[in-house]
Recover the amino acids of this structure.
């Protein structure tokens, strides 16, 4: 229901709805970013982009780097850390073997991620999230203060690390790019040519090499400490949520919105002007400035999006709650986006990579997500879980979860 203009803090029974909706919002933003890679747009030269989309693509590409790229994986990672705190609280409250169940749950997610990464798509986020999920378990007893201090240090590691690697001449990917290219079929080192591979054997061989490439990219772009910092903040926020001190803390939310928004507004355009942090980019002064800009543009602005969403929820939950259903089925919808992207653009599908203007790509992303919203609402009226979520639960607990809703439940 809609809240009146003087709406107060979010009540206990609304907490999970706003988190589900926020996850659904993040899912949409991730697809807006990923469609550029599925389609090959990110690998086109300036001349090819101009031929497809005219000069209009320059503003779109600029805005992508300034307000989309990286911000929504920040949201996803933050919600992962926050969800970790909630999972432990629920499991321990039931007297369950919380650690054992969490380890099993995270291991299953890791298996999903590895299959997704090495068989289907290089841009997988499940694998790094699951691996860092194990790290969260190791630090779960840290104090709130320690979490914030270590998150702050991790936040600055990419800047220090980039300068150190540059000074010492260390390969940013730790040699993994070379290994990846050696594993890929001849010619697939050109990522646009890779997308157009039409032989399934070559596709699978290339996907395995790209999986290794992904790990190199995570080191090259210093993604590990960034994700760890975000997840630590999520764990800290999850504790506050359990205590009723997060969604109800208007002062904190406004502070994050203002500070994160200003940080992103100032450094986001700088990051875009520098072309982002790039891929396989040699060390340079511009690269160093880009890492600094990325640090102060992406994570703060992503957290500002989260704070702004929660504040807006107080007055517009009736509208925003439409995003809760796709958020509850985030794993299913995320994997579904990969399936659609590969089917439409890859050579083993319809082979459309490199042929669509960016305007059409963004239109497709919006249309696909709109369908996912509708399907998610329909699905959850009849079933308790999305298909992937149901399988995840089955493999975690080893028991057959109730899948279909009963007529009595549906009629309520």
């Amino acid at each position: 229901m809609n809240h009146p203009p003087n709406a107060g803090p979010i009540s206990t029974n609304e907490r999970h709805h706003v988190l589900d909706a926020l996850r659904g919002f993040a899912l949409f933003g991730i697809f807006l970013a990923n469609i550029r890679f599925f389609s090959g747009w990110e690998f086109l030269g300036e001349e090819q982009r101009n031929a497809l989309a005219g000069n209009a693509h320059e503003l779109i590409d600029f805005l992508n780097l300034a307000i989309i790229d990286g911000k929504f994986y920040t949201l996803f990672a933050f919600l992962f850390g926050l969800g970790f705190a909630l999972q432990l609280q629920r499991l321990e409250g039931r007297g369950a073997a919380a650690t054992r169940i969490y380890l099993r749950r995270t291991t299953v997610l890791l298996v999903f991620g590895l299959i997704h990464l090495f068989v289907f798509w290089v841009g997988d986020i499940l694998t790094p999230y699951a691996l860092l999920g194990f790290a969260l378990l190791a630090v779960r007893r840290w104090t709130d203060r320690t979490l914030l201090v270590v998150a702050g240090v991790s936040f600055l590691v990419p800047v220090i690390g980039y300068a150190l690697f540059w000074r010492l001449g260390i390969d940013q990917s730790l040699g993994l790019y070379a290994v990846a290219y050696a594993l890929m079929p001849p010619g697939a080192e050109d990522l646009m040519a890779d997308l157009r591979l039409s032989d399934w054997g070559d596709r699978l061989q290339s996907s395995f090499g790209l999986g290794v490439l992904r790990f190199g990219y995570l080191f090259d772009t210093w993604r590990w400490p960034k994700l760890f910092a975000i997840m630590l903040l999520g764990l800290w926020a999850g504790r506050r949520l359990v205590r009723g001190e997060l969604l109800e803390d208007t002062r904190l939310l406004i502070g994050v919105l203002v500070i994160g928004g200003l940080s992103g507004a100032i450094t986001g355009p700088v990051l875009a002007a520098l072309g982002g942090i790039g891929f396989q980019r040699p060390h340079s002064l511009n690269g160093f400035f880009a890492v600094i800009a990325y640090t102060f543009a992406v994570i703060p602005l992503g957290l500002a999006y989260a704070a702004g969403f929660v504040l807006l929820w107080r007055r517009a939950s009736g509208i925003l709650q439409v995003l809760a259903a796709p958020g509850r089925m985030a794993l299913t919808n995320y994997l579904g986006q990969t399936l659609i992207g590969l089917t439409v653009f890859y050579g083993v599908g319809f082979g459309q990579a490199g042929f669509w203007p960016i305007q059409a790509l963004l239109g497709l992303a919006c249309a696909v997500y709109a369908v996912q919203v509708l399907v998610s609402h329909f699905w959850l009226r009849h079933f308790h879980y999305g298909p992937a979520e149901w399988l995840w639960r089955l493999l975690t607990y080893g028991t057959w979860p109730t899948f279909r809703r009963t007529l009595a439940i549906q009629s309520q």
About this structure: Residues 285-320 form the longest helix (36 residues). Residues 12-411 form one domain. The chain has one domain: 12-411.
